[in-house]
Design brief:
Blueprint lengths: L2 H23 L5 H22 L10 H12 L7 H7 L15 H21 L10
């Protein structure tokens, strides 16, 4: 695996660990942070995959419309992630500011979606369960 992909993976795993820790708290006050970290983890896992395959991408938080199509160009099985990525997309920006509220239940669903994305991408990159990035 190339060094840049590893760097993306380290960030992705850090965001995933953060989302998991925040979700364990179950506080309404930090549910938006859990969901944001879950989205960020998924974004960085997809970017790690793209970097490993020498696929360029714009500066974006858009999982379903920008990153997924690029992954699909390499491996069509990424299509199974589409509903999870569409679910996570709004947490990149929409819920970071006053107005919309994320419930603890929604935050747990965001973490579940991120877990699915994480597991899938790690498998595609040949990372088994025992290999820790941090």
């Amino acid at each position: 695996m190339n060094a840049e992909a590893k760097a993306w993976l380290l960030k992705a795993e850090g965001d995933y660990i953060g989302a998991s820790a925040l979700a364990a708290n179950r506080s309404r006050k930090i549910a938006h942070l859990t969901s944001f970290a879950a989205q960020q983890s998924s974004e960085k896992y997809l970017k790690a995959y793209l970097v490993e395959h020498n696929i360029s991408f714009p500066k974006t938080h858009d999982l379903a419309k920008e990153l997924l199509p690029r992954c699909l160009n390499v491996d069509e099985s990424f299509s199974v992630l589409e509903p999870y990525l569409e679910f996570l997309d709004p947490y990149a920006v929409q819920f970071r500011y006053p107005g919309d509220i994320v419930t603890p239940a929604e935050a747990r669903e965001a973490l579940k979606a991120a877990t699915t994305v994480r597991k899938f991408v790690r498998q595609k990159l040949g990372l088994n369960r025992q290999q820790r990035m941090l």
